[in-house]
Amino acid sequence: MNDVMGIINLSESDENIKDLTLSRSIASIMVLGRYRVVDFILSNMTNSGLTNVGIFTHGNSRSLTNHLGSGKHWGLDRKRDGLFIFHPEHRLDDNIRRTGDLENFKANLDYLKNSNQEYVLLSRSYMICNIDYRPFVDYHKKTGADITIAYKNMENSVRRFVECDSLTLDDDKNIVSIGKNLGKKRHYDISMEMYVMKRELFIKIIEESVHRGDARFMKEAIFNRMEDLNVNAYQFDGYLSCVNTLQNYYQTNMDLLNVANSRELFYKNGRIFTKVLDSPSTQYTDNSYVSNSLVANGCIIEGTVENCIICRDVHVKKGAIVRNSIVFPNAVISETTNLNYTILDKNVVITERKMLFGDSGSPFVIKKNTVL
């Protein structure tokens, strides 16, 4: 994989998860208490042998930049290649406000042109999986296609992929067309929005699209050239979830309370790495009761916690009951409070004698820094 560079493209729509992205990107949302969404794709790339990874940000990226640092937790603090983070640029002398990831790619063409790798592996961050990219890249080279897209065949019962890109394939796994999954078919092939192509082709698509003005996003530019390119598909068979809606985010975390799902996601094709934070062990008092939950370090648990994801430095006080919920760092849940199907963002304080209920399809969200 020395001939492949990785690009994580964060121009992801957050319209359906805005309660959690007001101060952060999707890539930096907490998953399972101590991880971030970006950790999965970034770990997949480094586990597969990629040593040159560029992350092209979008929107508020302060939290993400702080989390990634120099990339040392993923082995990317290197003298040659390593981790590169690029932010959108806005030129004051350009009277037209240009949005979309193609502008960010164009502004950083020097990075792409000066890289030594022959191929580009392009991915979003919000597809949660543990994938070995080596067979994916080998398949692309073997078929001789211009672009190869990873996909997973899903059943209609899995509702969380509605509105994701859906592929139509012929018998040779060539992509005939790309549309939207409306959840009407019994089986469908979901695009994982992971693409392999030659670096020269990637640069060519960027330059042509900017010159013509026929696309604002790389995905759109690829779709516009489907008739001129040989685009085929590579099938992935492991666990997959897409964190593009609030409901999907909640269900993904609840999935990982299942030991089989968490073992596959965190260990199947290599470990998932994250930024290491030193904190003391969680304290459980004699009055506490915890069942089927994951509780991170640094917490104080005095009340009842069932079927929950509890992040670092959370205080559940005596008499509080928290069920089927996700609690972000530094939250305080006071005495005689009852929470069920809720998501508490960072630094939330729930005062005494509050009852907050959502449901599994629509969890109740308390925004960051709220005192309720």
Q: What's the CATH architecture of the largest domain? A: Alpha-Beta Complex
% residues in beta strands = 25-35%
CATH class of the largest domain: Alpha Beta
Number of helices: 9
Give Rg in angstroms: 22 Å
Structural class: alpha/beta
Poorly predicted tracts of residues: none
Count the domains. Answer: 2
* CATH-defined topology of the largest domain: Spore Coat Polysaccharide Biosynthesis Protein SpsA, Chain A
Counted beta strands: 28
Report on this structure.
The protein has 372 residues and is an alpha/beta fold. It folds into two domains: 264 residues, Spore Coat Polysaccharide Biosynthesis Protein SpsA, Chain A (Alpha-Beta Complex); 84 residues, UDP N-Acetylglucosamine Acyltransferase, domain 1 (3 Solenoid), CATH 2.160.10.10. The protein is built from nine helices and 28 strands. The longest helix has 14 residues. The radius of gyration is 22 Å and the shape is globular. The mean pLDDT is 91.
